[in-house]
Amino acid sequence: MRADCRGRAGGDRQTKAPPGELGSLGRYLAGRAQEHGKITRAMGDAIAFCPPLISSAREIGLIVVRFARALDDTRRWLRQ
Description:
three-stranded antiparallel beta sheet, PyrdxlP-dep_Trfase_small
Protein backbone atom coordinates (compact mmCIF):
# COMPACT_ATOMS: atom_id res chain seq x y z
CA MET A 1 0.00 0.00 0.00
CA ARG A 2 1.25 3.48 -0.80
CA ALA A 3 -0.03 6.91 0.14
CA ASP A 4 0.38 9.14 -2.88
CA CYS A 5 -0.58 12.82 -3.04
CA ARG A 6 -0.41 14.76 -6.26
CA GLY A 7 -1.10 18.36 -7.12
CA ARG A 8 -1.23 20.05 -10.49
CA ALA A 9 -0.27 23.68 -10.81
CA GLY A 10 -1.27 25.41 -14.01
CA GLY A 11 -0.91 28.73 -15.73
CA ASP A 12 -3.82 30.24 -17.63
CA ARG A 13 -7.05 28.73 -16.33
CA GLN A 14 -8.98 29.59 -19.50
CA THR A 15 -6.57 28.06 -22.00
CA LYS A 16 -5.01 25.56 -19.55
CA ALA A 17 -1.58 26.68 -20.81
CA PRO A 18 1.25 26.33 -18.28
CA PRO A 19 3.26 29.46 -17.48
CA GLY A 20 6.50 29.55 -19.44
CA GLU A 21 8.46 26.42 -20.23
CA LEU A 22 6.79 23.10 -19.41
CA GLY A 23 8.13 21.87 -16.08
CA SER A 24 9.44 25.21 -14.85
CA LEU A 25 6.53 25.68 -12.47
CA GLY A 26 6.89 22.18 -11.03
CA ARG A 27 10.62 22.62 -10.53
CA TYR A 28 10.11 25.97 -8.81
CA LEU A 29 7.42 24.59 -6.51
CA ALA A 30 9.51 21.53 -5.64
CA GLY A 31 12.46 23.81 -4.81
CA ARG A 32 10.32 26.01 -2.56
CA ALA A 33 8.90 22.93 -0.83
CA GLN A 34 12.43 21.69 -0.16
CA GLU A 35 13.35 25.09 1.31
CA HIS A 36 10.45 24.62 3.74
CA GLY A 37 11.55 21.09 4.65
CA LYS A 38 9.23 19.08 2.38
CA ILE A 39 10.73 16.71 -0.16
CA THR A 40 8.61 16.42 -3.30
CA ARG A 41 9.07 15.18 -6.82
CA ALA A 42 8.32 17.36 -9.83
CA MET A 43 6.85 15.49 -12.80
CA GLY A 44 6.59 18.23 -15.38
CA ASP A 45 4.30 20.76 -13.73
CA ALA A 46 2.74 18.16 -11.43
CA ILE A 47 4.05 17.55 -7.92
CA ALA A 48 4.08 14.24 -6.08
CA PHE A 49 5.00 13.38 -2.55
CA CYS A 50 4.65 10.11 -0.69
CA PRO A 51 4.63 10.49 3.08
CA PRO A 52 5.61 7.49 5.20
CA LEU A 53 2.66 5.22 5.98
CA ILE A 54 3.51 5.46 9.68
CA SER A 55 3.07 9.25 9.80
CA SER A 56 1.34 10.59 12.89
CA ALA A 57 -1.42 13.18 12.72
CA ARG A 58 1.10 15.82 13.82
CA GLU A 59 3.53 14.84 11.05
CA ILE A 60 0.78 14.96 8.43
CA GLY A 61 -0.09 18.43 9.69
CA LEU A 62 3.53 19.49 9.20
CA ILE A 63 3.49 18.13 5.64
CA VAL A 64 0.40 20.19 4.85
CA VAL A 65 1.78 23.36 6.46
CA ARG A 66 5.15 23.10 4.67
CA PHE A 67 3.56 22.43 1.31
CA ALA A 68 1.11 25.31 1.82
CA ARG A 69 4.08 27.63 2.41
CA ALA A 70 5.66 26.42 -0.84
CA LEU A 71 2.37 27.02 -2.69
CA ASP A 72 2.16 30.55 -1.25
CA ASP A 73 5.74 31.25 -2.38
CA THR A 74 4.96 29.92 -5.85
CA ARG A 75 1.78 31.98 -6.10
CA ARG A 76 3.77 35.14 -5.30
CA TRP A 77 6.42 34.13 -7.88
CA LEU A 78 3.75 33.72 -10.56
CA ARG A 79 2.33 37.18 -9.87
CA GLN A 80 5.68 38.91 -10.42
